[in-house]
C-alpha cells in the first residue's frame, strides 16, 4: 500500500487534490507543537471519564452516532470521491460500513466486555476470580486513503466501545473527509476529546508514540511504514496492530466453476481500481485446461471497464489516488513487460490530466521482475499458470506477504488447499473481504494483530484478573 510518503511526510501542510483533474482542493496546516500536545492532553483527560462511562451509555451513543452519520452519508461520500477518486457508488457503499460497524459494537460489545468468574484452589482454601477486559488509555491510529472512512472507524469503533480514546492521523490526501468525523462525534454527544483527528507530522507521530500517555498504536499502510511504527512502539513497550500490504493469491483448481471464478477474480481485482490491500493480485491457474477457459473471461471484464471521473455514474474504474501511484504502477508494468511478461490486455498510464491508468492484464511474469516481489496497487491483473496443486500452493506462499487468499474448487479440496496458505483471511469459493463480524489481519509482512470482530478490542485492552480471598 502506497502510504509511506503520506504517513512520513516532511511537508508542513496536508494537501488534498482531485486525482481526476489534478486540481488542488485544499491545504491544511500540520498541527503546531502546542496543538499536538493540546489534543493529546484532551484525549488523556477524556479517557479518565470515558472508561467509567456505563456500557449502556456507550451503546446509546454508538446508536446515535450511527443514525447521525447516515444523515450525512452523501456529504461524506462526495468528499471521498473528490479527494481520492473512487467511483461515487463505491464511496456510497463505504458510507454504509461506518454505521454498520457502530451498530455491530452496540449490539455485541456488551457481551465482549462481560467479565468472567471462576474459582481457584489456594493453600488456604478456594478463592474467587474475576477477569475483565479493561481500557488502556489513548490509542493512536494511523490510517490510509483507499477507504478513509471505513479505515478510520475500524480503528476508532472497537477502541471507543472498550473505553479508550482515539487520536486519528489520516492520510495527507484524504484529510478533509476524515476531519468531518469530529463534528459527528461532537453532535452525537461523545465526550470532548474522546475522538480527535490530528494532522500530525512525522516528528509529532514519533513524539506521540514515545509519550507515556499514548498506550497503543494501530496502523494500516505499507510494510515499510509498519516496520517503522512497529519499531518505535516496540522501543517504548507498547502494543501495535499493523495491517500492512498484501499480494493475495487467487487459486483456481481443475474442479472449480471456472466461469464464476474468472468473473469473481476480475471484478474483485478491479474494486477501487485495484487499490485494496487484500485485492486478488496474483491469479494462479492449475492446468492449461483451466487457463484456456479462465483467461478469456477474465480479460473480457478488464477490457469492458469504463475509466473516468468517479462522479460519472457510468465509470467503473476511477483515477488512482495520485500521480505518484500511477507512476509507480506504470514502472512496475513496464519493468515486467521489458523482462518478458506477456501482455494479454494492454493498458497503462493514460495521457492528459488526471491520475488515470487503463486496466491491464499480463502473464508469464519473470522471477526477476519487480512484480514478482512487490505489491501491485492498482488495476493490473497478474496471471500465473502452473501444472499441479502443489505448485500453486508453493507459489502462493512464496510471497513475503500473507494477508488474504482465495481458492475456487470442489469444496473439500478447496478447503484443504486454503488451510495450507499462509494468510490471515482466506475465502473458499467466495472472496472473503473484510466483514465487520470477523477479525481481520495478516501474517508474515502483512502485519500483526487483528481488527474488528470479537477480537478487535483484544490488542488494546488490559485483560485484568482479580483474585478474591
From TrEMBL:
GO terms for molecular function: succinate-semialdehyde dehydrogenase (NAD+) activity. The keyword Transcription does not apply. Keywords: Oxidoreductase. Gene3D superfamilies: Aldehyde Dehydrogenase, Chain A, domain 1 (3.40.605.10), Aldehyde Dehydrogenase, Chain A, domain 2 (3.40.309.10). It comes from the Bacteria. Residues 11-465 form the Aldehyde dehydrogenase domain. This is Succinate-semialdehyde dehydrogenase [NADP(+)].
